[in-house]
Amino acid sequence: MARADRFLNALAGKPVDTTPIWIMRQAGRYLPEYRATRAKAGDFLTLCKTPELACEVTLQPIDRLGVDAAILFSDILIPIEKMGVPLAFPEEGPRLQPVRDEAGIAALRVPDADAEMPFVMDAVRLIRRALDGRVPLIGFAGAPFTLLTYVVEGQTGKQFTETKRLLFTAPRAAHALLQKLTDTVVNYLAAQIRAGAQVVQLFDSWVGQLAPDDFRVFAAPYVRTIIERLKPLGAPVIYFANDGGSLLADAAGLGADALGVDWRTPIDEARAKTGDDVTLQGNLDPCLLFAPIPQIEQRAADVLRRGGGKRHIFNLGHGILPPTPPAHAEALVEIVHRIGSELHRIK
Amino acid sequence: MARADRFLNALAGKPVDTTPIWIMRQAGRYLPEYRATRAKAGDFLTLCKTPELACEVTLQPIDRLGVDAAILFSDILIPIEKMGVPLAFPEEGPRLQPVRDEAGIAALRVPDADAEMPFVMDAVRLIRRALDGRVPLIGFAGAPFTLLTYVVEGQTGKQFTETKRLLFTAPRAAHALLQKLTDTVVNYLAAQIRAGAQVVQLFDSWVGQLAPDDFRVFAAPYVRTIIERLKPLGAPVIYFANDGGSLLADAAGLGADALGVDWRTPIDEARAKTGDDVTLQGNLDPCLLFAPIPQIEQRAADVLRRGGGKRHIFNLGHGILPPTPPAHAEALVEIVHRIGSELHRIK
Q1: How would residue B91 be classed by pLDDT, with cut points 50, 70 and 90?
Q2: Using one digit for the tens of pLDDT, what is the confidence trace for A187-235?
Q3: Which of A25, A264, A320, A321 has the most B C-beta neighbours within 10 Å, making it the best mutation to test the interface with B?
Q4: Mean per-residue pLDDT for B42-48?
Q5: Phi, psi dihedral angles at B206 (to 5 degrees)
Q6: For the purposes of burial, counting CB atoms within 10 Å of the CB of B232, is it exposed (0-12), middle (13-18) or buried (19 or more)?
Q7: Which residues contact A67 (CB under 8 A, 6 or more apart)?
């Protein structure tokens, strides 16, 4: 089987020769070549908005690591800026002009992705051409609830006080914002798919802050809508509800082809909650890549065993961290492919 | 039944007239009288270390809210300073001189709580006298893993990179530190109990960062040891593994009389994981106290229903937040007692 097919087959529940693997943030600061391109770009937003540079960093890990998918280099906040929320990326992390009231929400626009974010679609086209069929390309967006937290908090939330104040005291305004974010994400991901993204992932990085009852009101319906509206385009959708152990049973009913699972919930326990009709993606603790390679092998083997070679895509349970030795990421891919191929031979 | 007995009876699995309630951080910044005492103290550490002031703020919410337990006002990092780690509390949160290597860990001391933290035991004695039997007094400490994160990160962790680097690359040093923290906590809680604390709670605020396999190695054994070593003193122990939905089944086997449950895991789901031999404490999302009172009532009723009046102590799923209107906290206590008494009458 061609390396090119593993990831898509695992998403579709078709047979694979070994467990496919890609790594969240695989194009990132742990790679010296990424840091060089980043320095060349000057700042992070310029890197995101320059198709040649975004293409360059997207490609860097593909052959070095031997992963089975590429993921567009970008940031989930790019479309937020185009909705009318000024955005900057100082050292401390993203900073936005927070929007917290009905008037501010009413003033936000749903941007036309092709017209207003052409640099993203250009990057997608360049990457597809450069990949030349080696592996599929994943496009992505933030999920509506997670995007809402940035719009409302104006930064990465800590206790998400402003977010929840909006949800619990002004639910109508919250739903208006979630609906605009949903429309934006649908338009944005559809444009990525038309430009060549073969799969899309929805990152719900902060949805684990919600109790299941609130997830059902403020997150799940919007994710379901996005998946339904993208369905005619034919690209599989992966939904990653980070820190969402309590949300997995609900998440399984939203129509996604795959669910990301963070490292807190063992894959076999996740499987018990989701049933068999969805692919699971995850979930080694990213910090285990600091450990010596034999220990990485032992823990990766455990994740593979729990995955049972059954609709499983290997990944970390969260993004790879800057202090990770690149050789350890390379070793992980080799380990997963080796043990995964034994697992699939046995079946 | 006297208000004084509810909380202890619920911990012991004995009948109660209504569901007892207390609120994590009930003595805190949401109360204007707390802010006044805090201003009088000048800084946070002085407030913690002045028995009369610590007593004053501990007592403030008791009659105002009508809660069924008092909790010592202090901070989990107090004993860490006495272990030899310089500590400050600027506006941004706690700052410590981080300790990350074997030599630094070997240099840490296990303080004698009575001799080196007499202000804590004095506060406990003052509070017991001032409470005069109205409600029981809870003492507390951080659990070893959570304390380790502060020692190693030097502050409140974000991605806990340094913590996990220690666990995964220098496990011997990590265990040496966890053992010293365990000895410190046992000595510290035993002193609190001898001074008059009738119950103690172990706060494992960051243990939810661990996958279950790592919880079993780096957290659970130390919590079990603390509980075993305190058992002869006769004070019930509550263990709160924050964001620990995946850890609840394991946590139930550690010998605690009660487990705190954060707001992410509904109490009935937590119960299914823990079995019936432990009291559960929680778990309304603290941000729901921003909502209008009818909505608080609806959600509190749902928590009570899921608790089933069966070994349940009501609490928030995390500490009460500074922007909370005090009237909403008062309303919550009234709601829980009212609905809880119907629940217990029906049974």
Answers
A1: confident
A2: 999 999 999 999 999 999 999 999 999 999 999 999 999 999 999 999 9
A3: A264
A4: 95
A5: -115, 10
A6: exposed
A7: A21, A22, A23, A26, A61, A135, A333
pLDDT for A2 equals: 76
A224 touches chain B (CB under 8 A): no
Q: Which amino acid is at A122?
A: D
CB B4 within 8 A of CB B320: no
Q: How many whole angstroms separate alpha carbon A282 and alpha carbon B242?
A: 23
Mean pLDDT of the residues in chain B: 97
Burial level of B170, CB count in 10 A (0-12/13-18/19+)? middle
Task: Determine the residue of chain A that is closest to B283 in CA distance.
Answer: A211
Residue B347 has pLDDT above 80, yes or no: no
B208 interfaces chain A, CB cutoff of 8 Å: yes
A247 pLDDT above the threshold of 80: yes
Interface membership of A243 toward B (CB under 8 Å): yes
- Number of domains chain B is built from: 1
Verify whether residue A172 is a known catalytic residue: no
Mean pLDDT value of segment B201-211: 98
> CATH number, domain at B83?
3.20.20.210
Mean pLDDT of all residues belonging to chain A: 97
Q: Is A104 on the interface with B (CB under 8 A)?
A: no
Shortest distance, CA A308 to any CA of chain B (angstroms): 18
- Nearest-CA distance B36 → chain A (Å): 23
B92 in contact with A, Cβ within 8 Å = no
- Look at residue B345 in the predicted model and tell me its pLDDT: 84
Q: Are A8 and A301 in contact (CB under 8 A)?
A: no
Q: How many CB atoms lie within 10 A of CB A165?
A: 18
Per-position b or e across A324-337, b if 16+ CB within 10 A of its CB: bebebbbbbbebbb
Cα–Cα distances in Å, from B99 out to B36, B83, B105, B107, B165?
Answer: 35, 11, 7, 10, 13
**Max Cα-Cα span within chain B:** 60
Chosen from B163, B215, B264 to mutate, greatest number of chain A CBs within 10 A? B264
Of all residues in chain B, the one with the smallest CA distance to A322 is B161
Token pair in block for residue A1: 């089987």
Are the Cβ atoms of B212 and A159 closer than 8 angstroms?
Answer: no
Residue A286 has pLDDT above 60, yes or no: yes
* Subunit contact A291:B168, Cβ cutoff 8 A: yes
Calculate mean pLDDT across residues A130-154: 98
pLDDT digits (tens, 9 = 90+) for B158-195: 999 999 999 999 999 999 999 999 999 999 999 999 99
Q: What per-residue string of b and e applies to B13-52 under the rule 16 or more CB within 10 Å gives b?
A: eeebbbbbbbbbbbbbebbeebeebbeebeeebebbbbbe
Count CB atoms within 10 A of the CB of residue A303. 27
What ipTM describes this predicted complex?
0.94
Strands A70-71 vs A137-142: parallel, antiparallel or unpaired:
parallel
Cis peptide before B9 (omega within 30 of 0): no
Q: What is the pLDDT of residue B346?
A: 67
pTM assigned to the model: 0.96
Q: Which domain holds residue A13?
A: 3-346
